[in-house]
Design goal:
The structure holds three protein chains of three kinds. Chain B has a single domain, classed as TIM Barrel (Alpha-Beta Barrel), CATH 3.20.20.70. Chain B is built from eight helices and ten strands. In chain B, the strands form three sheets. Chain B has a five-stranded parallel β-sheet. Chain B has a three-stranded parallel β-sheet with strand order 6-7-8. In chain B, strand 9, helix 6 and strand 10 form a beta-alpha-beta unit. The longest helix of chain B is centred in the C-terminal third of the chain and has 21 residues. The mean pLDDT of chain B is 92. Chain C is an alpha+beta fold. Chain C has a single domain, classed as Ubiquitin-like (UB roll) (Roll). Helix content of chain C is 18%, strand content 35%. In chain C, a hairpin with a 2-residue loop joins strand 1 and strand 2. Chain C starts with a strand and ends with a strand. Classes of the chains: A alpha/beta, B alpha/beta, C alpha+beta.
């Protein structure tokens, strides 16, 4: 079972790092957790450019000059959880919506026409409105038209993940939001998500169920981003050891002060975010790194080639939002509003290949494909 | 301290008992090495020479015996040897060696995995000798091996850790101790293996055929210690061209 | 009767046990592993296991090895 040390212990480790530790980590092929702590520390800040260069070299070696593009598809804004930071919190009075199968398929086909082949299906936690049956059925419907289907929904059991894998879901994102237990308890006011440990154990269940990939992440701004980075490193190392067959990714959703009513308790600047990304790239050369449309176009373009490997584009975080202009409540505000074509152009301008399709379901034995949709 | 299958070892050097000029030299050399576990092989007794028995000189209270299955060419032969070893009172510890090619003595990965799976079921503590294949190491661990023994270079070649790159990967992914075995020809080789993070090394030929095996055993023991201390103390950085050419090169887009 | 030890024929008295054969060959039972007709014997069985005419014995011991 993965456990995370006391947040204060992580912070102490980071604050002990010296410039010598940073330089050693920068020069090492295997910086390890000590190296990661040093790279996340304030002592590393004067070396940001060197970190960028090293991160870029490693990313280039492992991933080539490519960025994988995908789109999120929000299926439902119903949610039983009361998370202080989220637009869909049960405490918020908003118009909630869950897409019917036909509506979901419609949204998916709009994305398909725009050129997307990788889809991330997102929903709030409300099993009565949208449960595993729904996801299974939708996956079976969509799997032949999309190269890869991922989900970002509430934590599920191993059996449920295995069911969804057989139906065509290949990867699961489940972010801890914060590895700071005290902060976690403060911002998760009610609902099943209030269980810190169950959520923490979820990536392992995803891997155990046979999913090809699991995504972890922290919502930057809730607590000390440096310690979140170290916790993510610990989580990655643990998952690599115990589930060596499973691909890993990390996402960096960053709360922006201007967005929404919830002010980030510990604001994270672009420099901080970059430092975190570079540090994790150096720590784990093979991990996929996501940069979502929360970030501005200027920033996302600047980071191409320096570490991130997966970009969403043309995103809408309101269920039904691709098909209609004013679809209702969004989960968060978008920083980069460009379409897939525009983002692809920007990626190409930097000399990189925007990869729309990086897999094919036909390669994968996923059980009875005759199952009725 | 090194722990393998729940048993602690003070010394990270394991010894082999083959190729020595005499049992007496072997005894002295192993003592000089400070090792606590030695490999032994199983063979038909030479009935013309019934008293020729190395067990006369090896104190079973001092050394943990690690019978090997040398000579086995496939899983079935290895399993048979393993059972014979256990029947001799050799305990459940076993160095699994499946080497169908008598020229290179390289281990057969498929038969090794098969035998490991079966022997683990029969309650053996299996330490498989393997080529330095990281995926094979993971598969053997998944099967229940209590350690993995990747080769540095083929048995007896004394070429050192030619498999360095793969061994590093094995070490980084390992959930059980990694014992680099075979081909370690000089103390510098074992120091290198230990600096990489290996948990232990096994040396036989280089000590047994040295001009002075007793002194050579001592040299190997010191090298294992030196390498391990260096690893634990955090080796210095190997310089890489990581410095930016100007302070904020390439980060002008940041706000 | 005749038994085969490591491939060689040996004459021993009828009714002999394994331990008798070992003694005849000058082998210390404590240092020997015995496989009789394909079956590995425990040390305790050396004194009780009766040999038949034509029994095939593999007598094995630990030797030096890497």
């Amino acid at each position: 079972m993965f456990t995370v040390p006391e947040f204060s212990t992580l912070q102490a480790t980071i604050s002990r790092a010296t410039e010598a530790d940073v330089l050693r980590a920068l020069s090492s092929d295997h910086p390890g957790l000590d190296g990661l702590a040093a790279l996340l520390s304030p002592a590393a800040e004067p070396h940001l450019a060197a970190m960028a260069k090293r991160s870029g070299i490693i990313t280039n070696q492992r991933f080539g000059r490519t960025i994988q593009v995908y789109a999120p598809l929000y299926l439902s804004s119903f949610c039983a959880n009361r998370c202080a930071y989220c637009g869909f919190s049960a405490d918020n009075t908003i118009d909630r919506r869950v897409l019917t199968f036909d509506e979901a398929e419609n949204e998916a086909m709009i994305l398909h026409q725009r050129g997307f082949s990788h889809l991330l299906l997102v929903s709030g936690e409300a099993p009565a409105k949208l449960g595993v049956d729904y996801l299974e059925k939708l996956a079976l419907r969509l799997r032949d038209r999309f190269a890869a289907l991922s989900i970002e929904v509430q934590p599920l059991s191993i059996e449920e993940y295995a069911r969804l894998f057989r139906a065509g879901i290949t990867s699961v994102a489940v972010y801890q939001e914060t590895y700071d237990r005290d902060m976690y308890n403060q911002v998760h006011l009610g609902g099943p998500k209030a269980d810190f440990d169950y959520r923490l154990e979820s990536p392992a269940r995803v891997a155990a169920a046979g999913m090809r990939e699991v995504g972890i992440g922290a919502l930057l701004g809730l607590s000390d981003w440096r310690a979140e980075g170290l916790a993510l490193g610990l989580h990655l190392a643990w998952l690599r050891k115990h589930y060596w067959r499973t691909g890993l990714t990390v996402s960096f959703p960053r709360m922006r002060p201007a967005q929404g009513e919830f002010k980030p308790l510990q604001p994270v600047s672009e420099r901080n975010l970059s430092q975190m990304i570079f540090a994790l790239r150096m720590f784990d050369p093979d991990v996929g790194l996501y940069l979502s449309t929360r970030e501005e176009a200027r920033y996302r373009d600047g980071m191409i080639g320096l570490g991130p490997t997966r970009y969403s584009a043309g995103s809408c975080t309101a269920p039904g939002g691709y098909g209609q202009e004013d679809a209702g409540a969004k989960q968060f505000e978008i920083g980069d509003n460009r379409s897939l074509d525009e983002v692809s152009l920007a990626i190409r301008k930097k000399g990189f290949d925007p990869v729309r399709k990086d897999w094919d379901a036909v390669f994968q034995v996923q059980g009875d494909r005759q199952q009725a949709a | 301290m090194l722990t393998i299958a729940g048993r602690k070892f003070r010394s990270r050097l394991f010894g082999g008992t083959g190729k020595f000029s005499s049992p007496e030299v072997m005894k002295e050399a192993l003592e000089a090495s400070g090792c606590e576990m030695v490999t032994v092989a199983l063979r038909r007794i030479d009935l013309n020479n019934p008293a020729d028995d190395i067990m006369r000189v090896l104190d079973r209270d001092r050394y943990l015996f690690l019978p090997n299955t040398s000579g086995a060419r496939d899983a079935a032969e290895a399993i048979r040897l393993a059972r014979l070893a256990r029947a001799s009172g050799g305990g459940e510890w076993l160095k699994l060696e499946v080497t169908p090619d008598p020229r290179t003595l390289l281990p057969d990965p498929i038969e090794t995995l098969k035998a490991t799976e079966e022997l683990v079921k029969e309650g053996f503590k299996v330490l498989p000798y393997m080529n330095a294949d990281p995926i094979l190491a993971l598969r053997l661990q998944d099967a229940g091996a209590v350690a993995v023994m990747p080769l540095g270079s083929p048995i007896g070649t004394n070429q050192g850790v030619l498999t360095r790159f793969q061994v590093e990967i094995i070490i980084s992914q390992a959930q059980v101790p990694v014992i680099v075995d075979a081909g370690l020809g000089a103390p510098s080789h074992v120091a290198e293996a230990m600096e990489m993070g290996a948990d232990a090394v096994l040396v036989n030929t280089a000590i047994a055929v040295a001009g002075d095996p007793v002194r050579m055993a001592r040299a190997f023991a010191m090298a294992v210690e030196a390498g391990r201390i260096a690893y634990e103390s955090g080796l210095g950085a190997v310089s890489k061209d990581a410095a930016a050419s100007s302070p904020e090169d390439g980060l002008g887009f940041l706000r | 009767m005749k038994v085969f030890c490591n491939g060689e024929a040996q004459d021993i008295a009828s009714g002999s046990r394994v331990v008798d054969c070992l003694n005849k060959l000058g082998l210390d039972p404590l240092s020997v592993v015995v496989e009789c007709d394909g079956k590995i014997l425990t040390r305790e069985e050396y004194a009780s296991h009766e040999l038949q005419d034509g029994s095939v014995l593999e007598l094995i011991r630990f030797v030096g090895g890497g």
